[in-house]
Structure formats: structure tokens, C-alpha cells
Amino acid sequence: MRVHVTRSAERDMDDIWLYWAQRAGLDVADKMQETIEERFSLLAEQPLAGRKCEEIAPGARCFPAGKFLIYYRKSRSALTILHVLHGARERKSAFRRG
Q1: Which of 12, 33, 51, 62 is deepest in the core (most CB within 10 A)?
Q2: What total of structural domains would you count in the chain?
Q3: Cα–Cα separations (whole angstroms), residue 41 to 20, 27, 35, 45, 55
Q4: The model's pTM
């Protein structure tokens, strides 16, 4: 299954990388991003692995990646990554902005 990363999710990933690069260095930031992207591949193979998050967005599911949650939606031809947010972040407002 093809993985499509939305612009909102790309911005989330950029923010995550920048946060970790500033606090822990480039190697840690790169590893964090790599770990999250590996989950994208896992979800493409097992798209029903995440729990339903209909309260966030219609058809949305979420799956953990360390302290982060990957929000995604499955269609027939693709897995769309909607957002990647820290687990402690208020999710509904992030979806309205994104």
C-alpha cells in the first residue's frame, strides 16, 4: 500500500526533528524521524493496527511511535498520514489548525 504524508504531517515531522536537533543533536533527531517513518511502513502493511479515532476526524486511526501518535486514514489505494503529534498534545485543536 502506498503511503501519502500530508503537508500537515510533514510540518509535524519537521517540528519534531527541529525540537530534537536543538535539544539532543542531529543524530538523535535523525533517529527519531527514522523511527517514526518506520512506523509508516508498518502501518502500510497493517493498516488496521491503530485504534479508531473517529472523535478526531472521520475514518481516522492512531498508532504510537514512542511518545508520539501517528494519525492516519486508510483508503483502498493509500495510507494517508494526517498528523504526527506528541501524545500529551491536545489533538482536536491540532486537527482544526492542520
Answers
A1: 12
A2: 1
A3: 22, 21, 10, 7, 25
A4: 0.90
